[in-house]
Amino acid sequence: MELRHLRYFVTTAAEGNVTRAAAKLHVTQPGVSAQLRQLERELGQPLLDRVSRGVRLTAAGEAFLPYAQAALDAAESGAASVSAVAGLVTGHLTIGTISTISSASVDLPALLAAFRAEHPDVDITLHELTSAQLLDGLSHARPEVGLVGLGSALPGDKTATLELAREQLVAVSCGSPLRAQLSVPLNALVDQPLIVPSAGTGLRDRLDTAFSDVGVRPHIAFESSDPDLLLRLALAGLGTAVVPESVILRYRGSNLAVRTITPRIDGAIGLAWSTARTLTPAARAFIDLTRQSLGTAAEG
């Protein structure tokens, strides 16, 4: 059994299709199929069921997948550690992020550019997911690190977090030009159609907890993980949007009324990673750079 067999199997399982897996691996489809059959013969069990539109894991495939992925991760970490001995950080880094991050809260493009400048031999892949999806994926190193919305509950004892930014949520509705000094009690929003972040996001968790704390159930009219869409829905007069304060900056001058919410609700963004897995040197370097950027921002 070779790493090539494991890589072909894991990629095919992820893609659900041998042709797409071959394209992603930059090899021919017959080559992938042959390697998969050889792996199945060696294990003595079929790992994939061939169906009309692709493949799906058998029970044996489901059992084998996490071990195949762990072997690939260990091999990559081992190779990267050898490079680290020579002072080099190489390999691949997968980063996850939520869509509600704005440059006013966390300047992700600047952070990635700084990392690329320091470690040009690391390939970076960026995926956009919800906070719940990111935190679930960290245990499988898919992604290795994630920029998540920190909800009311802690992510878990196997997940470490580094808070990067915190800002208050505001209520935004179509009306007079922006008046940020006005405030509205949380329970006064109950009878209004609300436009809120999607379930599974850290912001939504904070908002749901706040409503629960005051013993009311809101009327959720629309939800989306895209903060710009939330504001456009509010601009169309479809309800009151609840968004991070930084999101409204590019909408100043529009016909939106902005009110702070009492009691105050804060949304927090953090960098998260699994403590149950050995981080690659690239992941450790990214975490270290993020910590350094926080120190620089504080000094500034």
Notable characteristics:
300 residues; alpha/beta; Arc Repressor Mutant, subunit A; elongated
Summarize the structure.
The chain is of the alpha/beta class.
| CATH class type of the largest domain | Alpha Beta
Helix-strand sequence: HHHEEHEHEHEEEEHEHEEEH
Strand content range? 25-35%
Mean pLDDT metric: 84
Number of strands: 12
Sheet of most strands: 10 strands, mixed
According to CATH, the fold-level topology of the largest domain is D-Maltodextrin-Binding Protein, domain 2
Helix content: 40-55%
- Coarse morphology: elongated
Secondary-structure-derived class: alpha/beta
Outline the structure in words.
- This protein is α/β, with parallel strands linked by helices.
- It has two domains: 81 residues, Winged helix-like DNA-binding domain superfamily/Winged helix DNA-binding domain (Arc Repressor Mutant, subunit A), CATH 1.10.10.10; 212 residues, D-Maltodextrin-Binding Protein, domain 2 (3-Layer(aba) Sandwich), CATH 3.40.190.
- Strands 3, 4, 5, 6, 7, 8, 9, 10, 11 and 12 form a ten-stranded mixed beta sheet that branches. Strands 1-2 form a two-stranded antiparallel ribbon.
- A hairpin with a 2-residue loop joins strand 1 and strand 2.
- It starts with a helix and ends with a helix.
Secondary structure layout:
Layout: H1 3-15, H2 18-25, H3 29-43, E1 48-51, E2 54-57, H4 59-85, E3 91-97, H5 108-118, E4 122-128, H6 131-138, E5 145-150, E6 159-174, E7 183-185, E8 193-197, H7 202-213, E9 219-224, H8 227-235, E10 240-244, E11 256-262, E12 266-274, H9 281-299
Parallel strand pairs: 3-4, 3-5, 7-11, 8-9, 8-10
Antiparallel strand pairs: 1-2, 5-12, 6-10, 6-11, 6-12
